[in-house]
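Q: Predict the assembly, please.
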Amino acid sequence: MWVTIGTTSLVLAAGLGAAIYLKMEQIDEARAAVSTLEAEIAKARRTIEGTAPLEREVIVLREIAGVFSAILPGSAEVNNLIQNFYTYSGEAGVEPTSFKPKPVAGGRGRTSDFDQVSYALTLSGDTFQFLEFLNRIETHSRFMAVPSFQLTSVSRQDMEKFGYAKHKIQLDVETYVYVPQRRAKNVSIEGYARKRDLLAGEINRRRQALTLSTFHYRGNRGRRDPWVDPRVPIEDNPSGLTVPEQNEKVEQLIGLFGKAVREWDEVQGAENVLDRMVKRKSLIETIAMLEDELRHVDQEGLITFTPAVKRVQKEVRDPLRVLREEIDDQTYTEGPSKEEMEQVLASMQRHIESGDYAIAIAAFGEIKSTLDLVQGDPVRMVLAEELRVLSEDAQILSDFDAIEMKFGGQALIEGRPPAVIINGKTLSPGGLLDTGVEVLAIRPREVDFAFRGVVLTRKF
Amino acid sequence: MIRINLLPEEYRRKARTPFKMVLAIAASTVINGSLLATWCWMALGVAAEVEIERATLRMDMDGLTPQVAYHDALDEEIKIFASQEQTLAQINMNRVLWTEKLDQLIDIVNSGNEVDHFIWFDGLTVKQEPPRGNSTSFGSIKASGHSGSPKWNQVANFLEDVGDTQLTGFVNDFQKISMPEGTQNPPEDDLIPSVNWSFPLTLDLRSPDERWAIRQQLEGSR
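A: Predicted assembly structure:
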């Protein structure tokens, strides 16, 4: 009995103990799982706390991502580099002598998503042409950089031989091709447009940091090329002008020639014949002034510095000769048209009526030398004759107008011949005021004169 | 010794469970009962409570998991974009606009007007490169210059103009200007001026970060 009871009790107790033990284990495991979950939840909460800034950052980055592809060329566009170099060299005036791809140092051409592409160019030109070329490369819409270059200045002998600087220039040009290795999966962001609008300031700031800085090159501006030996041979410098002074003189001449070219363009684009005449007059004056300056330069030996002499020849004398020929070629080879003559006629009549005789004469002067060319064309011959007559009239009126007459009084007495006192001289009809100016009739404060076969009235 | 109860049945005391046995059974019952109660408390109380807590947390976690996944996806997207942005910014920052630098150098040379200095150069070498070894140079600009005047202090005048930030911003991108030095060349009597001094011009580039900071500072002050 005792044995039974004891055994039963023990077995029961052992069983329950085991059950309790197992339950405790189970509880511990559950508690551990709870702790783990709590830790995970805490971590998740911490993570989520950073979602809002992360979301903002993603929006900003997505918005500026377009800048990468805008700034950096794609693989296909790399070939256009050579086209760009070609165009730029032509625009800048440099003469390329070689171009070849340059291996990237250490073969490490790839910088993450960007492939480096490098070219070595050699060219010749003066410093300002080189700067024009360099500026075009550095301000190209796609990123291009010049990490190194070498300029070897032209020798004094070559400078005198060519008349302009041909420095030898070697330069490396590099760019990066955008080849993204991984494409970002765009996560859907709720209320994207609204959030993007709120971040506009930050997006612009970051975009600005990626935008290529540029420089506005304003050309030579009359400055001396520092890579040209500026010394002047002593025997060739009678005027004593320094090189900068000579260069300044050259710039003046070039400026004057530029003015003539602009005026010639204006003459060609004139709306009507009168406008063309006025502009042509200005052009002729400018050319005359330029030719005077060139004569002065030659007589005084003002420009002796060889590059300056060559520059005057190339940029002023030669093109001036061409311009002269062009002007002569296009100046009324077959005389003025009927419309042009009618315009001049109308203009002269208008000016004569308003008393502007000098302008009427000047208008005729512009067309006078070409009137002989209209022979054989009856309509234009009549117009030419009218113009000549009108011109003579204008000249007579102008000359008569120029005669000074000081009115001293008049006497109109019935039964007696009228008399008038002009310039202190008492005159009656038939009397001569001056050679060729005869008094014909005298009315109150009005006298008729005969002048070169024309009756003219002067009011006092 | 064996004890025998010879009393008739009716006189005999009733047979009882021995006290010890009762005690033993009672003790066993108490112990096992306690054990059973403990188990029940654990199973129905503690374990259930923990399970409920775990279930609640699991639900919380289930709610948080998509948000964490969203966060991770954003993080992954940022890593890709940020690397591109940083690289491009670095490439941009490294670039020096040499047109601007040369234009400024020409301004400096021409500012001498043959009075303060009369300078020209034989050549020019520009190199941008990352520093090597213990060097802190990020590249340099080197030119061999000539000063066309017997007054050899004009070399110093020129270098002073090079470093003059009021005149041009040329020097802003450079950390060091070479010390003035010069060597007189044999006089060339057939030229004006006949005397000229040779001198080296060397300037070391600042780091891209320094150049960028100075540029930002200058733009900010405008």
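The mean pLDDT of chain B is 87. The longest helix of chain B spans residues 19-94.
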